[in-house]
Design a protein that fits this description.
The chain is of the alpha+beta class. The protein contains 2 helices and 5 strands. It has one domain. The longest helix is centred in the C-terminal third of the chain and has 16 residues.
């Protein structure tokens, strides 16, 4: 069995497709997982706004952030990566995530001042991940 599959090398948001809907519920009223709904919202918001075209939307079963819900991993080659969670699986959250992903992709090392973060991502960071071959100072 192969665990890994190829994905685009550019900037992307990897959504956990199996994440809980919320801290209280595994699924929504229709039986859908929150991660699947958030991934769908990310794709819909991306498709509706050409500014987001450079950001790929990927899905992956389980990011192992199970104590959280609706988690995503933001990444881009040679840049600090971030895992964020505790989002509502809706268009507002998707827009905030994609706004941050754009700024992240345009930054030199994947880091930007707090004052430049979209309000919708503040308080949602779980972990930062250095790119291969680097650690943060």
């Amino acid at each position: 069995m192969t665990l890994l599959r190829p994905a685009p090398a550019g900037p992307s948001v990897v959504a956990c497709s199996t994440c809980r809907h919320s801290a209280e519920a595994q699924t929504d009223e229709t039986g859908r997982r929150g991660g699947a709904r958030l991934a769908e919202a990310l794709r819909e918001v991306r498709a509706a706004d050409p500014r987001y075209a450079p950001i790929a939307i990927e899905e992956m079963a389980c990011l192992f952030a199970c104590a959280q819900h609706c988690t995503v991993h933001l990444r881009a080659p040679g840049k600090m990566g971030y895992v964020l969670g505790r989002f509502r699986p809706d268009a507002e959250a998707a827009r905030s995530i994609l706004d941050y992903a754009l700024a992240h992709a345009e930054s030199e090392e994947g880091s930007m001042p707090y004052r430049q973060w979209p309000e919708g991502v503040k308080g949602h960071f779980i972990v930062r991940v250095p790119p291969e071959g680097f650690v943060a100072q």
